[in-house]
Amino acid sequence: MQQLLAPNHQPDGESRASASTAVSSRVRMIDLHVVVPDFAPPGWRWIEPENQDRQWRWHFYYTGKKAAKEAFRSSRETGERSVLVTHGPLDTMTVAKQRAVHGFGRPAHLAFSFHSPYERGFRERHLYRRLAPYIDMLVVHSGYEQRKYSEELELALGRIQFVPWYFENADVDASPAVAGDYICAVGASMRDYRTMFAAMEQLPEVRLVAIVRQECLAGLRVPANVTVLENAPKEVLWNVQYHSKIHVLPLPATSRSGHACLTQGMYFGRPNIVADAPCLAEYVDPGQNVLVYDPADADQLADAIRGLLSSPEQMESLGAAARQHALDHFSQHHVGDHLQRIFDRLAP
């Protein structure tokens, strides 16, 4: 059995080699070793810094356990200003285990958009709690996640950083993928389509286009005024959002998701109706840039949809405020600056 090192162990003989590319002393170059998740395209520079005096040199590893182990080995050879970045639970825990066994030193390990299978059984939760101390920094997208993971993983809040999600500068086809007027609900992770569909039962005159995965529909009856698109590509999802009258984000109160779809809907200037879930607290100003309803309250959701559709002026003002809020706070440049500050802490 492999011996796990204590989290404060610094391995002997760790590589301190300088980066091979000559860089001006004015430029704060950081080597980013990124384990690319399976959903991402090659060369996935998922975020860029706004400050051009600070440059990131990218190294990519594709994908899964073998790639995560290769990233761990290679990243130890590129000098002190290096950060190893993982996305997703499998790659994150693979690197954490490598560090537990072989050494907890440079480079620092950043788990971006961290999430754990907290809905699974004791064995998975125990594994995460055991390996989490070998991750230098976890990035999550809400204060709610920050607090919950601090409790679940028994980590100090300072090890878990909130960085807002960002919208993508999407190029949307001017031709609607779905003809006619409709409202939309898109996304599958930790959604509450039971409440969404119950609200639609009260609104037979309104059409909903829902982009979901099959598991979202388990045990549900789809109302006649709901069009379901399963597993649609991102370009179709964006198109449906962009051309919708209203974007609805139905979440349970305990959700830790929805940020990507919300920020994209805000960027598109859609009026948004969202569940008043704690995970959205840093993104919304109820009544100003979104309307909210109590989670699991189908009557309240139906009333919000009906009322907003009857007020074109409010739809326009909410959409404009949402877009401005997204541009001010959730651009890739803004989020890149958040990450730059974290990288400076991890690789000073």
From TrEMBL:
Please state every residue range assigned to the domain named Glycosyl transferase family: 220-324
Q: Which parts of the sequence are annotated with region: Disordered?
A: 1-20
Q: What are the protein's UniProt keywords?
A: Transferase
Highest taxon, organism lineage: Bacteria
InterPro entries listed in its UniProt record:
Glyco_trans_1
Does this entry carry the keyword Nucleotide-binding? no
| A GO MF label | glycosyltransferase activity
TM region(s), chain numbering = none
Quote the PANTHER family the UniProt record gives.
ALPHA-MALTOSE-1-PHOSPHATE SYNTHASE (PTHR12526:SF590), GLYCOSYLTRANSFERASE (PTHR12526)
The identity of this protein, by name, is: Glycosyl transferases group 1
Organism (species): Posidoniimonas polymericola
Organism lineage: Bacteria, Pseudomonadati, Planctomycetota, Planctomycetia, Pirellulales
